[in-house]
Amino acid sequence: MTVATLLVQCTDRTGIVANLTNFVAEYGGNILDLDQHTDEETRRFFMRLVWSMERFSLGREEVPAALRILAKKFDDFSFDLSFADDRRRVAILCSRTPHCLYDLLLRHRMGELEGEIVVVVSNHADLKEVPEHFGLPFVHIPADADRAAVEARQQAVFEQYGIDLIVLARYMQVLSPELCARWPRQIINIHHSFLPAFVGARPYHQAKARGVKVIGATAHYVTADLDQGPIIEQDVVRVSHRDTVDDLVRKGRDLERQVLSRAVRAHLQRRVLLEGNRTIVFS
Amino acid sequence: MTVATLLVQCTDRTGIVANLTNFVAEYGGNILDLDQHTDEETRRFFMRLVWSMERFSLGREEVPAALRILAKKFDDFSFDLSFADDRRRVAILCSRTPHCLYDLLLRHRMGELEGEIVVVVSNHADLKEVPEHFGLPFVHIPADADRAAVEARQQAVFEQYGIDLIVLARYMQVLSPELCARWPRQIINIHHSFLPAFVGARPYHQAKARGVKVIGATAHYVTADLDQGPIIEQDVVRVSHRDTVDDLVRKGRDLERQVLSRAVRAHLQRRVLLEGNRTIVFS
Amino acid sequence: MTVATLLVQCTDRTGIVANLTNFVAEYGGNILDLDQHTDEETRRFFMRLVWSMERFSLGREEVPAALRILAKKFDDFSFDLSFADDRRRVAILCSRTPHCLYDLLLRHRMGELEGEIVVVVSNHADLKEVPEHFGLPFVHIPADADRAAVEARQQAVFEQYGIDLIVLARYMQVLSPELCARWPRQIINIHHSFLPAFVGARPYHQAKARGVKVIGATAHYVTADLDQGPIIEQDVVRVSHRDTVDDLVRKGRDLERQVLSRAVRAHLQRRVLLEGNRTIVFS
Amino acid sequence: MTVATLLVQCTDRTGIVANLTNFVAEYGGNILDLDQHTDEETRRFFMRLVWSMERFSLGREEVPAALRILAKKFDDFSFDLSFADDRRRVAILCSRTPHCLYDLLLRHRMGELEGEIVVVVSNHADLKEVPEHFGLPFVHIPADADRAAVEARQQAVFEQYGIDLIVLARYMQVLSPELCARWPRQIINIHHSFLPAFVGARPYHQAKARGVKVIGATAHYVTADLDQGPIIEQDVVRVSHRDTVDDLVRKGRDLERQVLSRAVRAHLQRRVLLEGNRTIVFS
Questions:
Q1: pTM above 0.90, yes or no
Q2: End of a domain among D32, D58, D83?
Q3: CB contact under 8 A, C106 and B98
Q4: Of D217, D220, D222, nearest to D250 (Cα)?
């Protein structure tokens, strides 16, 4: 049984939900999940609609055209349609720290992620054996003074593997604005603080210095503005005066891997929409 | 602007969402919120649909008849319709502990609860001044060997005040099966443990004896089976070997008042449906 | 039975714990609680020592002199000694929002706070009936262009009531540097964000604009630097795209009152020490 | 620099802390950490004392005799002494589910555990490659109708590797009372519920059936009574009506691995003491 997932956004008005659910029902689709949201300020409408294609009388290649006709009834209507077997292809970028990498690869193996991790790229060779243990290729592209050359090599790998999503699993290099622009809403990073607190380098040291009682981690889409992209997921853990910076790093690792994996999972399940610099994450 | 809230349940089949959202759209209603759920095992469908009546061309007294006609298309269809200004009338039953009582009354005053607390009934006189401070009547009905007589007096108060919901805010008496049967899904209790752990009396003592590292509180609908009714909300807090039973009681108070208030709030917002002995709480 | 609580800090070296616990044991005191901490970077030692005075052969007025002699063995030794019946006297400053005020007054009545709330001061008359319901005096000192005059009146009230601790329970005025300096480590404020994120005004609006998935509250000692004082306690709650600013305010209220009350409770139990701009909170 | 960790328990009386800290100070030891607890009901005293051996004038083999002399001053005094380089040797028992196994092995590699995982034993061959990837031996001992024979083979492995601690990382076999008796307080299990709720088989199914809003995991020492041993650590996660049993299993995996690893870490750091069927876990 194939399942279709439709993400829609448009200016809010009467009848949108009825029109879309009618469309599904008229062709024999059974709705499996529906979530919607209207932003109070901007009056923008967002919907995620999931239906079974089992007895759906339109072929999947016919659906987009039908939706484009439907769209004419509404203002600023845009949509994203996918099918459960269109599994997005994921590249992981990492450096030397293995915890997020293991976490993603193990979840992938256990079937928690609705996508395919297909390649792991790193600026160091340290973690080479990790993807290999999970049966995945590892590509070593060392960092270099010539960032453009490095990114060209990375881009070639992404193209070779037909990548849809890039996950920065504690990748310790800043991406160029050009690379960010080429992959809008397709790069997810984990920042090891509760953003917007402690932007930039060494957030655990900053947290220790400020004497906070809770530390956090934040998964966000990467934009050209460092640590300023739309937040997908965050979580926190309590700390105390007894925790050294090393303890914060250790406690933070547990947060980082969970927060990053939840964000990647939500993205791959097509649960994340964007309104300006904020996300709507349908649960 | 009046807002209508419709809760629906029926056997799942194609077209339910379309039919109901069409119904709203055809008469000019704008959907403000929609949440739905199909139980995987029982194939039962549940929906909560909220729309603005501002330009709705049916009068509110005409809606039920229209829904009954619509219902004929579906199996085992039942619905519950209400309007934002139909505020449910709430009685609180308490004994001697004030924390849940203050919490509910303060939230009521601050406009957090979509209902009206109209009377406080207690088997003790200790808390008399609390409802009075909030401008509400207090009725003292002492416990007595003749439980039937006590409950008859309580029932008379509930009828006098036109009560829709009874909240047991740490009320230390067990209700008779008759009273439970008379108010199905209309009595909410707070039990001071993480059910089903520590059913019955003195749960904090039980928790201390077992050496748990987390304690909880559970808000549930009251049925004739003690502490077995459908769970609406639960939450927990960490404890350690340093916590005496008195500390558990103190930490538990914070949980109890929050968990009870969240459950009452969800009930009054018509977010709670029942499937057998389980609740669906739309968020 | 009287209980003594001693807070000590000095430069770390061998034998401090032995010296202090020996001192208690030699005079017949039984240690009830002991917690200690040495800061890794600064090598500064902190201890909280609680013992029963029941069979202690020194009178309580003799203890400080004995400690001063002991102190000569150590570097930069300072201490704070108190007895369980020296209950600190607390003034609450509030404005119009009642939730933190009710929370503190109810906990006080239920015996959760080891201190005495003795007066409530506000720049508005709205909450007059709240302290009166709890049997406490209310003093109305309206805000005024002449802040110095207002603060002089407040100071007179604090002196009249013999105040040891000032709690800002959502008090919506900024205190002058002079007032802050007069009450070092004796003013506790609740800020409605997870500091250092969202310093300053309207933090819930800032949180909504940034699209965070978790909001927080922070209790801290007030210093002349707005929202920069030492953090005593913090906590957070999850939010989503569905939460409007009003929802954040409502959810935040639950956090604020709990975080503030925990900080006040810890302070009154003499559990809080300071190292620079950070707190050590012994649990 | 070697560090000594001393766990002590005895009947509470005046002077215990002074005697022990004096002992350390007299021989030139610097106390690095001290935590103590007296049980209110049983009046039993517990302490964990950590000191630097750097300038300690007793050799480590002399310390036990000195402590035994000291012990004569107190009633029912028992102690457990260890040094940081006495790293406990750990065997992991698992079946087919890899998440707890990976978690422990990765934390071991990253230096989070103060012990040595030296062998992995399983009743299935499925996870063979996991310990091998981490450079550890894997021993396959299939389950069999003759449990005694199986356990004899396991015991032989434990003896061969000089095991101090057995960790059941989702091991799906019940241990015999004889095996439990041979390894008292040396076997840690992870149970996939918030004990004492949902003892026994298929706790996630039980949780779904009861309709709880929070699920948990519990790490405990194994005794002959199934799921009744002393609880070391517990934690929980929220669930809703949307979560199927499969979702509970998935969410539970994150809990299980964290709760188990925290318990193992605390045990290896000698932070766990027992009072009857309850643990004291010094933080």
A1: yes
A2: D83
A3: yes
A4: D217
